[in-house]
Write a structure and sequence with these properties.
alpha/beta; 2 domains; 8-stranded mixed beta sheet; 14 helices
């Protein structure tokens, strides 16, 4: 058995105007052919596929990953279309395709990148070769995706277990081939777009929704039941939540279960909108008064893992204005500041504007501080289990800059911002020596969990803000709740 493997992933935030380019993919590594297996065995979604494939031969085409951000450029879209075309044409006989995409990627002028990629694979492989599409559970499901693929599976947890998704997808693919199954799919769009504060699957309404999908999979007729609370900053014509049920040749059962999952999500829509984030000043003072650290302050509006640009200065401004004294870690993505501080050199005292480089949500803040370290931002996270499938990343020229109680990690590229303790340690900073750590993520707190005393979500504005009502929506289908009174 020969299984082709393609993994291309980026999550688009339409409220971040900075485009995602091929250079952003290069910063995390674009691998082709045998290099995909050599670098990713045992790690991430690719590693999950390889573990499930067993004795089957894997024909790796390409692996490319970029951090969430603005729409990908047309150049990047065309590049990957050509890599898919050339790779599958050169692959020879293929019994099945493990297609691993994100599901919420948009390009310049193209809302549905993954639909176009899946359609190209179907065109090249013909109608009879099974294609199993593995998606992030924040994907936006489209008609084109469903039509092009034999079956669709998704992440079963948030925080995501990418290895698990790779295993599930390839297990389903091999069953289709070996057992000659006849997958039937039912999918339902749900007119919902909610903030991210209830996205964790270990608790609340999301746990109830995802647990029900797992219960459905205990029926041997059900190959996969997957839920998709679309990431809430994708402004596209087919936007909205979705659910998918795949059965073995039982359309009536698939329809019944998909209806149930959609109805369950809709019945909990008010619960999905419950907020836990608190005002910036209140959050900062709560961390300041906490009996011990490390207190994680989640900069929800500037969630780099949700596609924001990482240029928010709101928490820093609050600390300086309120006169806090607790030592704090704050990441900031600013190519301009990184260049200026690099030129000044280590030990220099510098006054400069910080924040608001990329997005209109923030106003530059004038600060004075000391340059402590200037470094190359190339990091090897291969040994860091928390990094999952990232391996080597490039954060560009990176500077450690001290401003009052804050130690800032100012990078040229997004990388993973300061969302992993190992990133700070790579630049000589031990996070456990700090009372407060600001993370540029709205829900991926697991990386700091072993050293965290508490997590406080901060109600910051920005491309990833929880206030979905005031975002400048243009393309989202209407009516949709809660933007409209359905």
């Amino acid at each position: 058995m020969r299984l082709a493997l393609i993994h291309i992933s980026q999550e688009t935030n339409d409220f971040n105007p900075v485009p995602t380019t091929l250079a952003d993919y290069v910063a995390y590594g674009i691998y082709e052919g045998q290099e995909v297996i050599d670098r990713l065995t045992g790690r991430g979604q690719v590693g999950g596929h390889l573990a499930a494939a067993g004795g089957a031969e894997t024909v790796p085409i390409i692996r490319a990953w970029a951090c969430a951000g603005g729409r990908i450029t047309r150049e990047a879209f065309d590049f990957f279309q050509e890599k898919i075309r050339a790779g599958l044409q050169a692959a020879g006989r293929i019994d099945g395709l493990a297609l691993q995409l994100h599901g919420a990627c948009a390009a310049e002028g193209i809302d549905d990148v993954e639909g176009a990629q899946a359609a190209l694979c179907r065109e090249l492989l013909g109608p009879n070769v099974p294609i199993v599409l593995g998606l992030d559970h924040h994907a936006n499901i489209t008609r084109q995706m469903v039509d092009a693929c034999t079956a669709i599976v998704g992440h079963r947890a948030q925080p995501h277990d990418q290895f698990d998704t790779g295993q599930v997808g390839t297990t389903v693919l091999m069953r289709i081939i070996n057992e000659k199954l006849r997958p039937t799919t039912a999918w339902r769009k749900i007119p919902l777009v909610t903030h991210q504060e209830q996205f964790l699957t270990a608790q609340g309404p999301m746990k109830r929704w995802f647990d029900r999908a797992r219960e459905m999979e205990s029926d041997p007729r059900v190959l996969q039941a997957s839920n998709y609370p679309m990431q809430p900053w994708l402004d596209v014509a087919e936007g909205g939540w979705a659910t998918i049920v795949v059965t073995d040749n039982d359309q009536a059962l698939a329809d019944t279960l998909a209806d149930e999952l959609a109805a369950l999500a809709w019945s909990m829509r008010e619960a999905f909108m419950q907020r836990t984030a608190i005002a910036v000043d209140d959050a900062v003072m709560a961390a300041e008064r906490a009996p011990k650290g490390v207190v994680v302050l989640s900069d929800t509006g500037d969630t780099v893992f949700g596609g924001a640009a990482g240029d928010s200065n709101l928490i820093l401004e609050s600390m300086l204005r309120q006169g806090t004294t607790s030592p704090a870690l704050i990441p900031l993505i600013s190519p301009t500041a990184a260049a200026r501080l690099t030129e000044a050199g280590e030990g220099a005292e510098v006054t400069l504007p910080l924040g608001g480089d990329a997005t209109p949500f923030f106003t530059p803040l004038s600060v004075t501080g000391t340059v402590r370290k200037v470094a190359d931002g190339r990091l090897d996270l291969t040994a860091d289990n928390q990094a999952d499938s990232q391996g080597e990343i490039d954060m560009g020229r990176t500077v450690i800059f001290e401003v009052g109680p804050a130690t800032l990690l100012i990078s040229t590229l997004r990388g993973v911002a300061g969302n992993l303790p190992s990133v700070w340690r790579a630049f000589g900073i031990e996070p456990t020596e700090y009372k407060i750590a600001v993370v540029k993520t709205a829900s991926n707190f697991q990386f700091f969990a072993p050293i965290t005393s508490q997590v406080i979500r901060v109600d910051t504005r920005g491309p990833g803000q929880s206030d979905v009502m005031t975002l400048p929506w243009r393309r989202l289908p209407r009516p949709i709740w809660p933007l409209d009174p359905i």
